[in-house]
């Protein structure tokens, strides 16, 4: 009987301790801009913003059903919630923020002629400057691969919270989409910063994401590029046009002529200038025009060589075995190939 009584006491004490332990949840919410107006609602959806606007990340901690955050209002699970300041959460909170970023910038979905989605190797990198901060401006500079975007591109984030012996975390590298993609679900908080609202501007959202040979998806809406997981050269140029609201399909370089119109075509002369079949110099394209080479494509950015004509010193943006970046045509590996200057059909 004494043993039974002792067991009952231990069971009662254990049940009491569990009941007293707070229910702890961690969330990342964000808002375009500073988010310091009372009207802003920070939520968990992926964010697209111009770099000049920026995105503010907030920690939102749920303790015993109460939402603590320095964002005035947050939306969790589709419901708008009022918040209490994180300083009111009682026991000291430890906040650790992480970049969830690709560890490589070159992948292939085709091996020995067989297609399969290759799992993109993501890594979690602590953001030291954000340690114990309740909110901060989103920084999309990669740290595991070369920073080719200069503050433009896409980054994913994770938050780990510790409080009074308990811990909680938002999804990270384990949150895979499954067989239809090599990337992560939208449960991993995503921020994309672009240069501006132009076609070239929208392309900069893909900075920091890997080149994926034979990037694909069950549909255009579920394509790896649409989800900002990475792209090959053709899917990269399609991505920006789709972001402008044009319902064009993802395709390969051989499919681009059906979606564009030919402006000029020719080959490089010894002095680096591109000339047509009559030997006349091809006029410098407009920013955003397509430069289509045999089995490769880029987008014209600016005329920096011989003024007014297309030459191999001019700058294009493309992706080829590296994350998207600007590069002179001479360094692209395709300068000696014939080129077609094309423009998207409106």
Describe this structure in words.
With 346 residues, this protein is mainly beta. The chain has two domains: 10-193, no CATH class; 254-344, no CATH class. It has three helices and 24 strands. It has helices at 2-20, 199-203, 233-243, and strands at residues 24-32, 41-43, 47-50, 55-63, 66-69, 73-76, 79-82, 93-102, 106-108, 110-111, 114-115, 122-126, 135-137, 153-163, 166-169, 189-194, 211-213, 260-268, 274-275, 290-293, 296-302, 315-318, 325-328, 339-344. The strands form six sheets. A seven-stranded antiparallel β-sheet has the order 19-18-24-20-21-22-23, covered by helices on one side. Strand 4 (55-63) and strand 5 form a beta hairpin. It is elongated and about 80 Å long.
What's the end-to-end separation, in Å?
86 Å
Return the string of H and E elements. HEEEEEEEEEEEEEEEEHEHEEEEEEE
Count every helix, treating DSSP H or I runs of 4 or more residues as helices. Answer: 3
Overall average pLDDT: 92
Outline, from the CA principal axes? elongated
Strands of the widest sheet, in order across it, are 19-18-24-20-21-22-23
Which radius of gyration do the C-alpha atoms yield?
Answer: 25 Å
Descriptors:
346 residues; mainly beta; six-stranded mixed β-sheet; 3 helices; 35% strand; disordered N terminus
Write the layout of secondary structure elements.
Layout: H1 2-20, E1 24-32, E2 41-43, E3 47-50, E4 55-63, E5 66-69, E6 73-76, E7 79-82, E8 93-102, E9 106-108, E10 110-111, E11 114-115, E12 122-126, E13 135-137, E14 153-163, E15 166-169, E16 189-194, H2 199-203, E17 211-213, H3 233-243, E18 260-268, E19 274-275, E20 290-293, E21 296-302, E22 315-318, E23 325-328, E24 339-344
Parallel strand pairs: 2-6, 3-16, 9-17
Antiparallel strand pairs: 1-4, 4-5, 4-13, 6-7, 8-12, 8-14, 10-11, 14-15, 14-16, 18-19, 18-24, 20-21, 20-24, 21-22, 22-23
């Amino acid at each position: 009987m004494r043993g039974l009584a002792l067991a009952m006491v231990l069971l009662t004490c254990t049940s009491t301790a569990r009941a007293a332990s707070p229910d702890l949840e961690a969330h990342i919410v964000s808002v375009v801009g500073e988010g310091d107006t009372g009207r802003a609602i920070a939520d968990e959806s992926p964010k697209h913003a111009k770099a000049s606007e920026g995105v503010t990340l907030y920690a939102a901690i749920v303790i015993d059903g109460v939402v603590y955050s320095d964002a005035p209002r947050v939306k969790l699970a589709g419901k708008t919630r009022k918040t209490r300041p994180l300083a009111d959460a009682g026991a000291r909170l430890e906040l650790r923020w992480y970049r969830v970023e690709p560890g490589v910038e070159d992948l292939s979905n085709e091996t020995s002629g067989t297609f399969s989605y290759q799992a993109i190797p993501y890594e979690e990198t602590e953001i030291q400057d954000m340690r114990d901060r309740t909110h901060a401006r989103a920084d999309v500079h990669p740290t595991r691969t070369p920073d080719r975007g200069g503050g433009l591109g896409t980054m994913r984030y994770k938050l780990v919270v510790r409080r009074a012996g308990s811990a909680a975390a938002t999804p990270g590298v384990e949150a895979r989409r499954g067989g239809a993609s090599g990337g992560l679900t939208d449960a991993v908080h995503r921020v994309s910063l672009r240069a501006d609202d132009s076609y070239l501007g929208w392309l900069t959202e893909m900075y920091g994401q890997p080149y994926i040979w034979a990037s694909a998806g069950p549909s255009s809406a579920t394509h790896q590029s649409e989800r900002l997981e990475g792209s090959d050269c053709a899917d990269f140029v399609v991505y920006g046009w789709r972001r402008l609201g044009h319902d064009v399909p993802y395709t390969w370089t051989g499919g681009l002529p059906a979606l564009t119109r030919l402006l000029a075509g020719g080959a490089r002369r010894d002095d680096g200038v591109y000339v047509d079949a009559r030997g006349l110099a091809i006029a410098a394209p407009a920013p955003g025009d397509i430069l289509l080479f045999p089995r490769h494509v880029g987008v014209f950015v600016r005329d920096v060589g011989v003024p007014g004509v297309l030459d191999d010193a001019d700058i294009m943006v493309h992706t080829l075995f590296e994350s998207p970046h600007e590069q002179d045509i001479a360094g692209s590996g395709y300068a000696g190939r014939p080129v077609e200057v094309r423009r998207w059909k409106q």
